[in-house]
Amino acid sequence: MVVALCRCLRELGDLDRGIEAAERGLAEMKELKINPTVESIELLSTLVGLYAERGDLHTAEYLAQEAIAHAGSLNDRRAVGAAYWNAGLVAHRNGYYEEAAVFVERALAMYAEGDNARAVARLQTAYAAVLLNTQPPRPEAAHELLVQARTALQEVGSTVDLVYVLTNLARADLQLGEFDAALTHARSGLEQLGSEHRLQAARTLLVLASAHLGRGALEEAKRMQETAALHLEASGASRQSAFAWAELAESLEATGDSERALWAYRQSLAQLGHRALNHTGKVEEQAKG
């Protein structure tokens, strides 16, 4: 139940409460001297994902290694697969795409031997996301995986599962130069999400903004980038919001709005904890959120 609660909080964009719930659950198990179980490894792996989303990658990486060690002691494929899955997410967030691919491939191999079709399809989506960031990117291979995942998730997945697929399909479209297809996939994802899934909606908005940029619709792109940055900031996803503010700054520069571009860059730095000089020359920390 705690794992499910944490996942709901993540999708709602309430990362701090998700982390609090996961840590409280793990602390209670430790206090009761309960040995690691498959469920506790899944909870620890969920906590890894929450920290990664929030941008605390050092903590996420440490906990990911702890999850892998605990899972190995259980000799359970589901537990090991969950640990590798979120370790891949952390590596992906850190920009270690080859390492991320190895972790996700291992997780996929673990789950493929079971009967959890939804987990396999979600891992195919995660693997496709990694392929879109490798050097060089592999959009054709990613697209093929995503089509397979979408077919499965239409039967066994949730709405947000399908939106993950649609968002990554749009990213693959962008890399292939198919801007109209990217717009279609991203718009479809946003329509299906509604207003509750703040975190994923922000990421989909950024992809949609990139599609508009590809078509030369700069004003539409800027509006979506700012909305996405605000959503990510409100979710506590500081690292992701920093990148979103930087993307907006670049778009503002491209249209000659230097003053607002400077403001957006400052917002980006604030999300990374930048300490700025005020008008008196004293150092003051820019507030987050």
Task: Give the topology, please.
Layout: H1 2-12, H2 15-31, H3 38-54, H4 57-74, H5 77-94, H6 97-112, H7 117-131, H8 139-156, H9 159-175, H10 179-193, H11 198-214, H12 218-235, H13 238-254, H14 258-271, E1 275-277, E2 283-285
Antiparallel strand pairs: 1-2
Fold and architecture overview:
This protein has 289 residues and is mainly alpha-helical. It has helices at 2-12, 15-31, 38-54, 57-74, 77-94, 97-112, 117-131, 139-156, 159-175, 179-193, 198-214, 218-235, 238-254, 258-271; strands at residues 275-277, 283-285. Strands 1-2 form a two-stranded antiparallel ribbon. Helix 1 runs antiparallel to helix 2 and helix 7 packs antiparallel against helix 8. The protein is globular. The two termini are 30 Å apart. Residues 283-289 have low confidence and may be disordered.
Could you tell me the strand content as a percent range? under 5%
| Beginning-to-end CA distance, first to last residue | 30 Å
The major sheet is characterized as:
2 strands, antiparallel
The total of beta strands comes to: 2
How do the SSEs run, as a string of H and E?
Answer: HHHHHHHHHHHHHHEE
Spans of at least 5 consecutive residues whose pLDDT stays below 50 are 283-289
The residue-averaged pLDDT reads 91
Q: What value does the Rg take, in angstroms?
A: 20 Å
- Percent in helix: over 70%
Determine the structural class based on helices, strands and strand pairing: mainly alpha
Shape: globular
Looking across the biggest beta sheet, what order are the strands in? 1-2
Helix segment tally: 14
Provide a concise account of the structure shown.
The chain has about 290 residues and is mostly helical. It has helices at about 1-10, 15-30, 40-55, 55-75, 75-95, 95-110, 115-130, 140-155, 160-175, 180-195, 200-215, 220-235, 240-255, 260-270, and strands at about 275, 285.
